Amino acid sequence: MSSENKNKNPLFISFLTLGFLFIFSSIQYPSEISIFKLRNFCLYQDILKNNNDNSETLDDIPDENIKYNPTISYFKALSDTFSFIQSQEKVINESFKSDETLVYKASAYDNVFFFKPLDSFFNSLKNTEQNGKKIRVAYFGDSMIEGDLITQTIRELLQNKFGGNGVGFVPITTRSAQYRNSIKHTFSKDWQSFPFNKYKDMQFGLSGYVFNPSQIVSANSYMNNSDNSWVAFKSSNVSKRLNKFHVVKLYYGTSRKSNILKCEIDNKQEVSQQINGKYLVNEFIANNTTPINEVKFNFITKENLNVYGVSFEDTSGIYIDNYSFRGNSGVNLVSIPKEILTDFNKYMDYSLVVLQYGVNVADPSMKSFGWYEKAMINVINYIKQTMPKASILLVSVGDRAWKNGTVYETSPAIPKLINAQKHIAQRTGVAFWNLFEAMGGNNSIIDWVENEAPLANKDYTHFNHRGADRVARLMTKDILSEYENYKNNEQEKYLSQRLK
Question: What is the pTM of this model?
Answer without folding.
Answer: 0.83
